[in-house]
Design goal:
With about 300 residues, the protein is mostly helical. It has one domain: Farnesyl Diphosphate Synthase, CATH 1.10.600. About 75% of the residues lie in helices and about 0% in strands. The chain has 14 helices and no strands. The two termini are about 25 Å apart.
């Protein structure tokens, strides 16, 4: 399993929302787009998703480099935090991946390249590095994830043949924020020790639960308004989990809402792209085997704890 360390440095399970939002956008662009920006490059549209994954993999590595102390305190993401992979090696991998992805993006279409570059600048630089360091600014941290989800959906929409900036992407941005809010909860103690300021640290568990519910309801409203059934039905399915998180605001309950949100939207995308089941299961079970054999814990998991 040691031979897979550099692969799992990319945190493959984080690609679920990336792939799901992109494919949802691609389906939406093909179905609802006005075809003004019809994607006509000879490469397969799915290559855009591959190169997007390279860019975001580079972003995830940079995030781990900057969060090494916090990850060590939280007892997770051991590869950089526990010096299994050096910071230098990690930077080289991140630069290579992001560089290849962005160059390929510009080769495919200048709008794709600009979208990739913006994501790298937003989620790689502004989120992680001073003086901006938005990850330590609760509201700007939310904005990073919301804007990132918006851009990824737009890239899928463009690839599917729609115009570049569809208003319905707002619904996906809101969904991304609702899910992200809960992900700040499990690491609160370690984050506090290292001086990191997330939304849940600044405002507490209860306000985080309420805010996540507000964004979830807003997601439903926008999805219904745009008649985006691909998002509406999964959002309806997971709404009770967000409500339960407010009624009994524990980390376990709120993380259950997050896990089932990711699963529900991915399942909806599998309905319109049945082949998507394959990467979903491959990443899940390969990750499960890797983390069990390499570090002795059960991840990923749908358990609430």
């Amino acid at each position: 399993m040691e031979n897979l360390d550099n692969l799992f440095l990319l945190r493959p399970t984080l690609f679920y929302p990336i792939w799901t939002f992109f494919l949802a956008g691609m389906w939406g662009g093909a179905r609802f787009g006005n075809r003004v920006g019809e994607f006509a490059h000879p490469v397969s549209p799915l290559w855009v998703c591959v190169f997007l994954s390279l860019v975001m993999g580079g972003v995830f590595i940079v995030n781990q480099i900057q969060d090494a102390e916090t990850d060590r305190a939280n007892g997770k993401l051991f590869l950089i935090a526990n010096h299994i992979i050096s910071v230098k090696e990690a930077y080289i991998e991140a630069v290579l991946l992001a560089g290849i992805g962005i160059i390929a993006g510009f080769w495919i279409d200048v709008r794709i390249g600009l979208g990739f570059f913006f994501l790298l600048f937003l989620a790689g630089w502004l989120y992680n590095y001073p003086p901006a360091q938005w990850k330590n600014r609760p509201l700007l941290g939310l904005a990073t994830n919301g804007i990132g989800g918006f851009v990824i959906y737009c890239l899928g929409w463009l690839t599917g043949g729609g115009e570049f900036v569809p208003p319905r992407a707002v619904a996906y941005a809101l969904a991304g924020v609702a899910v992200f809010l809960n992900t700040t909860l499990p690491d609160r103690e370690g984050d506090k020790k290292t001086g990191k300021i997330t939304f849940s640290i600044r405002y507490g568990v209860k306000k985080t639960a309420w805010t996540a519910l507000v964004f979830e309801i807003a997601t439903l409203g926008f999805a219904f308004g745009f008649k985006d059934w691909l998002l509406l039905f999964p959002a309806l399915f997971v709404l009770p989990f967000f409500v339960l998180g407010v009624l009994n605001p524990t980390v376990n309950r709120m993380m259950r809402a997050t896990k089932f949100s990711v699963l529900a939207l991915a399942a909806a995308v599998c309905v319109v792209f049945p082949w998507y089941v394959v990467p979903v299961f491959v990443v899940f079970y390969l990750s499960k085997a890797y983390y069990r054999k390499r570090f002795g814990f059960d991840y990923p998991s749908f358990k609430s704890s």
